Amino acid sequence: MSTTVFPPSAREMPAAMPVSTDAAMPQYTRRKVFGIWAAAAIPMGTLAWVVAPFVRDHIGGRDPFIEAVLMCFTAGLLWVLALALILVRRERGTLRGARGAMWLRAPRDPKTGRRGGKVWWMAVPFVFLSALLNGLPIDPVGPMPRDLPHLIDTDRAEAFFHGNWLWFAMVVVVAMLAPIVEELLFRGVLLPRMRAACGKGDVAVNGAMFGLYHLHQPWSMPAAIIDGIVAQAYPTKRYRSTWMGLITHTVPSFVIIGVVLSLVI
Q1: What is the pLDDT of residues 10-51, one digit of tens each?
Q2: Scanning 1, 96, 214, 227, which has the fewest C-beta atoms within 10 Å of its C-beta?
Q3: Which residues, 6+ apart, have CB-to-CB distance to 137 below 8 Å?
Q4: Angle at 240 between CA 238 and CA 244, to 5 degrees
Q5: CA-to-CA distance for 57 and 69, rounded, in angstroms?
Q6: What SS3 class is residue 60?
Q7: Residue 17 near residue 92 (C-beta atoms within 8 A)
Q8: Per DSSP, what are the bridge partners of residue 108?
Q9: Which of 187, 201, 199, 200 is nearest to 241 (CA)?
Q10: What ranges in 47-153 are assigned the alpha helix state H?
């Protein structure tokens, strides 16, 4: 049986607790790992499938359903961000040093131990790999207007976004917030703390959990699982840096923003 290292309580920790090393990183039990997944996935799913239709029926606007979905996604992503910060705060008793606790540091070459510099370039092949995986016909088309990547190719999207700078700004918020907060939770908080519960399979389990987290858009789960394992969890663990997953996960958002901007102007 694997042993679980429980962090000291906030009262037992000094005010300026040093950044945890990888070896001393507190480890979660399987129950806690699943609980954190549920705390992120269930609210997102509820907002998408229960709250969004309710909001649609109580607001006006050019396209109430698109507006409701964007508002609910924003609320859900802010909750995921809050969850990640709450977990770090409870673990350490403070958010000071949260960057180290979430692996928000320059990537380290696993062979030479060199950190930063040319090692940053190792993110490039994973960006292309992620683009290749997302370009494969793996995911089915989701219902409109929930499936944003497919929605932007429709006349409905053109009619909604043309000259609509306010809701373009909301798309920017969602498109950038999603990869950032998801990587902070799944790769910054969960991945470094899953070793005891999952052993050598932590990368695969982490990527699978990330894919299954998409209850709000289940049609995207197949590609999200593969991409989450290969292009996000793996490079993050190999180079001990959440920035690797953040880079590969965020690049597609710029493509979406660019396409929507072309509809606006």
Answers
A1: 444 443 344 445 667 899 999 999 999 999 999 999 999 999
A2: 1
A3: none
A4: 80
A5: 12
A6: coil
A7: yes
A8: 115
A9: 187
A10: 52-56, 64-92, 98-101, 123-135, 148-151
